[in-house]
């Protein structure tokens, strides 16, 4: 353990009385060592943090953020000013000449940009015109095809109507009912027959 020395005791006598090999440590009045227990008067004390007002905390936080922004902006402004002055000092008269060259280069680039935009505008107009012409051609072709399909449909329906009109001549009506009955009786037909695998009539019954 550390050997404690008092401020009032004399150092030579303490060194002589202290056991050999033990380190010496000087005590400080009013402080305890790490190994001392907690005081009895403070055994049940619980430390509570001081109360904080939420509104005050938000206000302080907002002001602190504003302060940081202002300080950062001032630092950047001062830094830019220092760098600009250093640049002017190092470059000197070349700065104005360089600005003129940059301005001239900017004007040349803007002129080239305008020419390029005009060229691309003409190309775009030609492309749009071709697309419109192609769309108009496709629309006309679709109209012609639709008209042809309609004409073919009308022709087919007319043929069907003509065919039905031809067939209607053989329809049974009240006027020709007796005639049709006589024709059936004069020409009887037997549908009671059997066919083989090739579709030929194999066997037929005899009409009575």
From TrEMBL:
**Which keywords does UniProt give here?**
Coiled coil, Mitochondrion, Ribonucleoprotein, Ribosomal protein, Transit peptide
Pfam families membership? MRP-S26
Origin superkingdom? Eukaryota
Q: Which family does it belong to?
A: Belongs to the mitochondrion-specific ribosomal protein mS26 family.
Q: What is this protein called?
A: Small ribosomal subunit protein mS26
InterPro entries assigned: Ribosomal_mS26
Q: Which residue intervals make up region (Disordered)?
A: 20-53
Indicate where this protein resides in the cell: Mitochondrion
Q: What organism does the UniProt record list as the source?
A: Denticeps clupeoides (denticle herring)
Whichever gene encodes this chain, its name is MRPS26
Q: Which residues form a coiled coil?
A: 84-174
> Sorted alphabetically, which PANTHER family does this protein's record hold?
28S RIBOSOMAL PROTEIN S26, MITOCHONDRIAL, SMALL RIBOSOMAL SUBUNIT PROTEIN MS26
An annotated GO cellular component of this protein is: mitochondrial small ribosomal subunit
